[in-house]
Design goal:
- It is built from 20 helices and 33 strands.
- With 706 residues, it is of the alpha+beta class.
- Strands 3, 4, 5, 6, 11, 22 and 23 form a 7-stranded mixed sheet that branches.
- The protein is globular and about 105 Å long.
Amino acid sequence: MSKTQENKSIYWRAMFIYIGFVLVLAVVFINTVSLQFSGKNDNLEISDEGSGKIPTRIVKRIPRRGEILDCNNTPLVTSVSFYDIHMDPTVVKQSIFDSEISDLCRQLASLFPNMTAREYENYIRRARDNKNRYLLIKKRATNDERKKLRTFPIFKLGRLKGGLVDTDETIIRKRPNGELLKRTLGYVQVKPDGKELRVGIEGAFNEYLAGEEGEEIEQRISTGWKRTGQIVKDAVEGADVVTTIDKEIQEVAHSELLRQLENQGAKNGTAIVMDVKTGHIKAISNLTRGEDDNYYESYNHAIGTKEVPGSTFKLASLMAALEDKKIKITDTVGAYGKYTFYKSTLRDSKEEGYGRITIQNAFEVSSNVISRVIFNAYQNQPENFIRRLKSFGLGDPLGIALDGEPTPTLYAPGDKMWSGISLAWMSIGYEVQQTPLQTLAFYNAVANNGKMVKPQFVSEIKRNGSVVKTFEPEVLIDQICSPKTLNALKACLNGVVERGTGSKLQSSLFKIAGKTGTARILNSDLRYGNRGEEKYQASFVGYFPADDPIYSCIVVISAPSRDIYGASVSGTVFSAIANKVYASTLRYHEAINEDKPLNKQIPISINGYRDDIRTVLDALMVPYSKMVQTEWVNTKADEKMILFQAKKIDKRYVPNVVGMSARDAVYLTESLGMIARVKGTGTVKNQSIPAGAYVYKGGLIELTLE
């Protein structure tokens, strides 16, 4: 071979090797890109101890969704874990299988009695003979059941020797409080077209709650795909959303509203309680009568239903006229029961009228003579009235975080719906539409000395107990009106309760300020109905205590059947909520015995397991009372000894573990099927799920130690 031919041979061999390397690199690159963009690769193969290459793929690991908590960190929505239990009977040694399979099946039949012990044994033996490596034992087992399975014969040897496969986790959202706040808490739902439907707090704060998906390798076996436990990318759990809701106030609002709806046979109702200074929503209840005549949280009327507000709108009308210096609150008017505008007539609920009274008196008794006052003041320039109302924020949505808020209806001259009587009717709350929350925000601004704040449902976002984002109060309007106007209107709102339509709502402990409203609404056929067929909406909106407001509140009840007036229908609910909130709110009451000296001659003892505590007290020679019979005890130190009190545990309810050590608290809660998460050191000072709540198997309870 000549030197030239030899060089050519070397050249082509080098080119062949080079091209081969390029092809290999190309295949690796394509597989890598496929993994990154598709999230799975059915062609990825992994050797399995001489059994040949097993097809694998990468699948998504769904993270645990964050919790939704009330302002005191009580869970309102939590994630509960369930596990699909499988078995690989082929990995169990023959000697162990033969000696322990009967015991295993007896315990399986005891835990899951859908099959007898003999049926379980035949089922597992047949799977072993057929080399079934992924035999279903139980779908959706609780975490408590999963822990018990790990103590069973054969299964206690673990996955590689005992064949127990219990890592297939399904996470389900649970609301521990049932219908309470259901619609506002909301949900995230994937529709058939793949798009997400986001409702309420779950939907609005989904980006925080959802977390980040992980990736895990699955193997293909004869019966399908199974997880290997090999993690490609860890899932990141969702953050917790801390709402502004106070569960205690929420329960009061819900129960009082429900009681009145049932009493009145009403169509639906809503109640909202808001913190005056911050705009934080402390309670929001929405109940609608179902076909079975029971009431459910099926629609958020507080946010999404706009209706004529009726007489509660008279506050805005007087505010406009006072700001424009059209009237004085002390001006007198003739309230004689009937007021005609062109061919339309408005009447007072008191047929003979009220005679000659001041405008303030007219507001307090809710006389429709206010329509005459506003008509006379603005009939030549009605656009000024509308402009002034809009300056109060009444023409715009509040821009809340939750979806579904409509824009208020506020007609103006030139609109198709505007007519010669619009000004008069609008002044008393018709030809204008608002949601209950929009009405409340306006009244809250009056209580807040003219500062209108945006209603908020969430205060902060937490991850692993640490705050990662805070939502500060947001001011919409710094000052909706002058202090002079504000003071005049506050006097009017006080007068409604002191001597007007709300006089039966007075409390002996504190003052309430507010306004009643009774509005005629359309029937289901979009007509007002003939005489005797009319439907009404009753409302009461205001704040308390009147002298130094802390909370504002609105109650709206639609289509009551036994009464129609705002004071007697909705005002009584408002009053009941206010009284119960006042009685249970510490900042309303002075502390007693604050400086009482403490006597600590006997050491403090924690609550917990009786025998452990007794052992410690005996070792330290601390005297104690006669021992009680229950395994778990509460302890209390007096001047001479440690006193033992029986602590009964009912497996249906979450126990009170405050005052216990971390070990005892975790053991007790997890023995009931819950998952305990501990923060801090010392003894338990707070538990995220309150004592007495129903136990949810697999539910997460956070224990804070100090």
